[in-house]
Amino acid sequence: MSSEEKVAIVTGASQGIGAGIVQRFLTKGYRVVACSRKIATKSQPNLIEIAGDISQPETASRVIETARERFGRVDTLVNNAGAFLPKPFTEYTESEFATLLQVNLGGFFHVSQRAIGEMLRQASGHIVNITSSLVAEQPLKSVPAALTAITKGGVNAITRALAIEYADKGIRVNAVAPGAIRTPMHSSDTHVFLAALHPMGRMGDIHDVVDAVLYLENAPFITGEILHVDGGANAGR
Ligand SMILES: NC(=O)c1ccc[n+]([C@@H]2O[C@H](COP(=O)([O-])OP(=O)(O)OC[C@H]3O[C@@H](n4cnc5c(N)ncnc54)[C@H](OP(=O)(O)O)[C@@H]3O)[C@@H](O)[C@H]2O)c1
Predict the structure, then answer these.
(1) Rounded to two decimals, what is the model's pTM?
(2) What residue owns the CA closest to ligand 1's atom 46?
(3) 36-94: pLDDT as tens digits
(4) Which residues approach ligand 1 with their CB closer than 6 A?
(5) Check: CATH 3.40.50.720 for 3-227?
């Protein structure tokens, strides 16, 4: 199948990494269903934008049904929507615990389950999860973020689990684990500090993560991979 016929779903698409992934897929000839809570609905023939909270099963159903009804299939799902809430462990509230679980795990679970249902019918598909290198795998003493660690670490684990579960069904499951990326998630006054966390001495740019997603998308013998895009941070200090 040529990329002109392929259909991708991207969550967390209104800004930052998700918006970059949407634009790259459109450039490559994909038809795209993009979702986030506050997305502006633009009219483009190959792009459908859906406003909704992806942590809710109803939004996940709407996203998948729209892809199927308007574009006929689901080839690729990029689970990009995510929340980051750094603070000391004992200061997290019950409500913050529920929110992080809903967005980072529920936002992955509901739409992935429905997408895999479509992919099984097609006997093909690819899921890419945007997780985290620094917080999930190289915890920082100076930036405690345990609820991001437990949720993004969980998505790293399920990436490998689902890759194995569906390896013989034509469905690949991979992850991109970014270091600190220059997006609206980080205010500019933190950039010097964040740049120094990477052996390369700089923050990542959105295109660094987008390149990794597209690399995995075009790598048919790769599944269960967690691709670190972090200027060497995962390798050491
Ligand atoms: N930037 C980094 O340094 C970094 C590092 C490691 C991992 N990551 C991960 O990369 C992903 C993208 O990060 P980013 O830096 O691009 O973040 P961002 O600029 O804050 O953008 C987050 C996107 O997710 C959407 N979103 C948040 N909660 C949502 C929900 N419940 N339902 C639907 N959409 C939701 C937001 O749109 P709405 O507000 O319109 O919903 C927005 O489009 C996240 O999963 C993040 O954890 C980022």
Answers:
(1) 0.98
(2) 82
(3) 999 987 768 999 999 999 999 999 999 999 999 999 999 999 999 999 999 999 999 99
(4) 11-18, 35-39, 53-55, 80-84, 103, 107, 130, 132, 178, 180-181, 183-186
(5) yes
- The pair of structure tokens assigned to 13 is 């698409």
**Beta bridge partners of residue 24, listed in sequence order:** none
User: What is the whole-number distance in angstroms between the Cα of residue 182 and the centre of ligand 1?
Assistant: 12
- pLDDT single digits (tens) 120-131: 999 999 999 999
| Residue 191 CB contacts under 8 Å (≥ 6 apart), including other chains | 182, 203
| CA distances for 56 relative to 12, 150, 154, angstroms | 13, 20, 19
> Tokens standing for 44?
């483009």
Distance 236 CA to ligand 1 centre (A): 26
Q: How far is the CA of 157 from the centre of ligand 1 (A)?
A: 20
Residues 6+ apart with CB under 8 A from 83: 99, 100, 103, 104, 148
Taking 90 as the threshold, does the pLDDT of residue 234 lie above it? yes
